[in-house]
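Q: Is it fine to ask for two folds in a single conversation?
A: Yes, each is treated on its own. Send the first.
Q: Here.
A: Result:
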Amino acid sequence: MIEFYLLIGALLWVVGLYGLLTRHQSLRRIIAINLMGSGVFLVMIALAARHTPTDPLLVALVVTGLVVAVSATALALRLATASEREGKS
C-alpha cells in the first residue's frame, strides 16, 4: 500500500512539473507548484508510515512544510495580483 502512495506522490509531482513548464499564466503556475509540493508531502508521509511507530521527524517536516507552503502561496498570489493590476493600468 505504501508503494501506491509513493507512486501517486511521484505522479502528482510530474503533473505539477508539466504544468509549470507548459503554462504561462501566473495562477496556473502557482497551482502547479502547489501540486508539486503536495506530491512531495505525500511521498514523505508514505516514507514515514513505513515504520511501525510513524517517524515523527518526517511528520513534523510535512506539517512545517504545509505552513510554509500556505504562506508562500499567499505571497505568490498577492504578487501575481499586483503584477496583473500593473499590467492592465
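Q: Second one now.
A: Result:
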Amino acid sequence: MKTIAIPSAFLLLVATATLAMAIEPIPGSITYGGKSPRVDLAPAGSNFFHNFYANGSEVQEIYRINPDHSVSLVSRTVANR
C-alpha cells in the first residue's frame, strides 16, 4: 500500500506546483484580459516572440501555438533599466 501512496502523493505535488507556477499575462501581453488570439498560418507547436515595454522595462514573451491554433504564454523575460 505504501508503494502506491508515495507515487500518488508525488504526482499530486507536481500537478499543484505546475498550476502555481503558471505565468499570468500582464498589461501589454497578447493574452491579457482574457483575450484568446488564434494563429492560423503557423504550425501547431511552433513558438513566437512578442516584445513590448511595461513600466519602463523591455519585456520579451514567448508564446507557443497550441494544436487548436490558440496561443499559450510559456516564458517572460524583463530587462530592467
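Q: Anything structural to flag on that second result?
A: Two points. Residues 25-81 form one domain. The beta strands are 47-54, 57-65, 71-79.
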